[in-house]
Amino acid sequence: MERVIVIGSGPAGLTAAVYAARANLRPLVFAGGLYGGQLMLTTEVENYPGFPEGIMGPDLMIRFREQAERFGARIENVDVTAVDFARRPLLVRTCDEQYEAGTVIVATGASALWLDIPGEERLRGRGVSTCATCDGAFFRDKHIVVVGGGDSALEEALFLTRFGRRVTLIHRRDRLRASKIMSDRARSNEKIDMIWNTVVEEVRGDDHVTGLRLRNVADGSTYEFETDALFVAIGHTPNTGVFVGQLDLDERGYIDSPDGSVTNVEGVFVAGDVNDHRYRQAVTAAGAGCRAAMDAEKYLEALEFKMDSLARSSF
Fold first, then answer.
1. What are the distances in angstroms from CA 88 to CA 11, 99, 244?
2. pTM for this model (two decimals)
């Protein structure tokens, strides 16, 4: 019987583990096969407070993990395969074991959608990114390409005009899917060009992005296109597969939280990008992890006080 189980090991999950461990709750963290979340795919992080010179994403997550373990968190590099939140205690299953818990903090994050084209994975963090807020400043006075046609893509493109010399938006259709207000803002920005009916087929470059191979979907023609960076903005998928039917999800599949970290199931709390589809930043995820752990601690205190009162009244 665990008092706190944390599912996920990005900034939200490991911050929750730090706070729960410092409250003497000895949390058990299921980190998954690869801990660290999206920051494990990031090279240099310059916008996390406390690191004025920047820090590599994986190095930052190693520090998160070491801090959680220092205070007594137990971290297992295994995936959660199923949960049962309809029973008490709450049940969490992995491939080999099942665990009971008084509280569960869900911090499984969200995964960016990628183009799955040659060169994309190899050059991630070397000019290929899915986060303009995280990486835009690395491309001052550079030519930047954004792929996508929705509001997220236009938000990225508009943000990147603060840094880039030129921003080119590439969309596979002949019109944007974004809202009219976002479309109007992008069209009126003199730094933004648009290429229609086109897809990216390959990312070029040895140790950094130098260009793309594009294909016009209308006539099938291909050509080379020089650029310094590629930002993929075709959406994110929340990692909520095991929680379908267990927790309330919104229309996008993110865990619904009507009040802070609280879910529709008593004793189950949520933190980070699995719930937040707006900010998607390490610092906001960490803050949410802190909040979830503190809420879980207060819930356990109230629950244990109630049980003690019942026990005393039975004598």
1. 28, 12, 18
2. 0.83
